[in-house]
Design the sequence.
């Protein structure tokens, strides 16, 4: 599985359509997507999943108003339940065949984070994309006695492209929102070795407070190059994230990569807590997306926005680091990384 900073052929997104994902906040959401497409399409193709012809017409009009070159945008009419294509979309990998590198798709099962009942449309998307692109796909399975498809969301893993994978125990091993009953840590690691070309798995503990997915690593810690990890850090001891983030920081500082070399750990501040109607939202700067020439970072009208952007700008000197206003977006319980999926060259 290539790292996110490796060259992309395209970025995939799903156009927002389910108003229940942003109750009372839906109106500005499509315009946030317009800005995301505007920033990305200059350096890579953007593939947009839409629900029907009427939506495509409307989206084309919106993008044109923002001076988006529609020749660099592809529309595919695949119906979905939600927009979070990071979690249900295909995981693109590179396969070596007869000395040639070919792109293939790993089609993990998606079950809406073991929480919601409407997920079958989303679960069909990797297979549809594989067929549209004429790519080989694999459907991972495991089990003793009864073989079962392995459930995995893209937001629950992060890789350095050299053989190391980051994930959390809270998401993959907890009995809460349990994705794969009966599968052990070693079963999951074996699947990562087999289907993603991973040689080492780094297990962190808990994810951030307010994370509806129950522990996704992309709100917590991310590789920014093969040997450097940015990790969310909270400096207020009274905040509910303080102890869990400190524990993860301590774990990372003792971890090594696939070759046994220590990792460089860079703290990334957490924004001040964001609430809506009494609910804490999963606002985190680590939910950035690395495009070919840009890094899109969620911002929250917070004094720490500027600090986070500065830290990431130093880590990505060859890319433009751009803040995308995400206060409304995060009410849907996701941000930049959750709504994108990269297709490597």
Sequence:
């Amino acid at each position: 599985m290539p790292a996110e900073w490796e060259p992309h052929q395209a970025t995939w997104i799903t156009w927002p359509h389910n108003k229940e994902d942003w109750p009372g906040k839906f109106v500005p959401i499509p315009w946030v997507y317009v800005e995301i497409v505007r920033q990305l399409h200059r350096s890579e193709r953007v593939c947009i999943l839409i629900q029907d012809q009427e939506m495509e017409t409307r989206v084309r009009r919106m993008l044109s108003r923002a001076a988006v070159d529609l020749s660099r945008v592809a529309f595919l009419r695949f119906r979905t339940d939600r927009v979070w294509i990071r979690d249900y979309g295909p995981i693109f990998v590179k396969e070596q065949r007869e000395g040639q590198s070919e792109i293939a798709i790993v089609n993990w099962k998606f079950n809406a984070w073991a929480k919601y009942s409407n997920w079958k449309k989303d679960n069909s998307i990797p297979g549809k994309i594989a067929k549209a692109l004429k790519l080989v796909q694999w459907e991972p399975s495991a089990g003793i006695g009864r073989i079962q498809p392995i459930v995995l969301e893209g937001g629950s893993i992060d890789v350095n492209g050299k053989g190391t994978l980051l994930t959390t125990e809270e998401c993959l091993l907890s009995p809460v929102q349990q994705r794969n009953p009966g599968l052990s840590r070693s079963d999951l690691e074996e699947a990562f070795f087999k289907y993603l070309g991973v040689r080492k798995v780094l297990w962190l503990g808990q994810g951030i407070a307010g994370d509806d997915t129950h522990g996704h690593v992309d709100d917590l810690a991310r590789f920014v190059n093969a040997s450097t990890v940015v990790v969310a850090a909270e400096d207020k001891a009274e905040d509910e994230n303080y102890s869990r983030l400190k524990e993860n920081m301590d774990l990372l500082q003792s971890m090594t990569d696939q070759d046994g070399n220590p990792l460089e750990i860079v703290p990334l501040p957490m924004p001040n807590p964001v609430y809506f109607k009494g609910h804490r939202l999963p606002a985190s700067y680590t939910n950035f997306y690395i495009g070919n020439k840009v890094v899109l970072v969620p911002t929250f009208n917070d004094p720490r926005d500027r600090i986070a952007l500065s830290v990431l700008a130093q880590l990505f000197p060859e890319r433009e680091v751009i803040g995308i206003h995400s206060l409304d977006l995060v009410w849907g319980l996701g941000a930049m990384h959750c709504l994108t999926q990269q297709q490597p060259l």
Notes: The first strand starts at residue 8 and ends at 14. The chain has a mean pLDDT of 97. The domain at 8-344 is CATH 3.75.10.10 (L-arginine/glycine Amidinotransferase; Chain A). DSSP finds ten helices and 20 strands in the chain.
